[in-house]
UniProtKB/TrEMBL annotation:
A Pfam family of this chain: TIM
Oligomeric form and interacting partners: Homodimer.
Record protein name field: Triosephosphate isomerase
PROSITE patterns with a match to the protein in the record: TIM_1, TIM_2
Catalytic activity line of the entry: D-glyceraldehyde 3-phosphate = dihydroxyacetone phosphate
Amino acid sequence: MSKIYLGTNLKMFKGYQETLEYIKRVNEITQNISSDIQVFVIPSFLTISEAIEKTQQKNCWIGSQNMASIAEGAYTGEISPKQLKEIGVTINELGHSERRQFFGETDQELAKKVKASVDFKMRPLLCVGENALEKDSNASSATVLRQLQIGLAKLTVEELKNVMIAYEPVWAIGENGVPAEPTYVEEIHQVMRDCLMTLAGEIGQEIPLLYGGSVNLANYQELLSKKNVDGLFIGRTAWEIEKFKEIILFANKNYV
Ligand code: 13P
């Protein structure tokens, strides 16, 4: 049985104290779970340092929501991989659709960030996913494959071992999102798996593929039951700690 990854992206929600309180609760929940369940929380940059200090368990990682691709330099307002590594960040969320949509991040730029994350011995969590127009035009697989292939292009086969992927169709994310059907998710995850195996052989089999986009208490069990779904990347549902707890404890009971 391979690991199950359960993470949450706090986006620009929760204040400083609220985030630390939330992380304290996540710590309590993860205290007695199997090392086969890997939980992670990705809060705003402001709280990362203190969140890491307060996080004792190896099975709860703290990550960043973005990162510059360059170690240091005159890039006002950016946060570098070197700085994130220094404070103990484990995982870098890269290319979330909100970054692509509102901040113009391109596949080419993301490829550099992915490489920088690996170079600084962190784990890139590359987010991919088609928008509604691409889905309606039957271009979902083509879009996701392009994002994957360009996003990972700078890595050697050996380096691909460190990568994690989150499939987050844009139309499924957030308040107006429609959760993707688990069978549809599995279809796209199979396409991604085939691509990763072409790129990296057997290593491609080991790269965790997470699903995100309106994961809720009604659909998480079926999503987790799919062969190529190695975890979930959750927004709103996980921000309510009792709901995140239910998902974590379910996985701990059924997948270890
Ligand atoms: P929701 O679960 O709120 O749709 O958000 C998913 C997401 O964007 C995680 O990165």
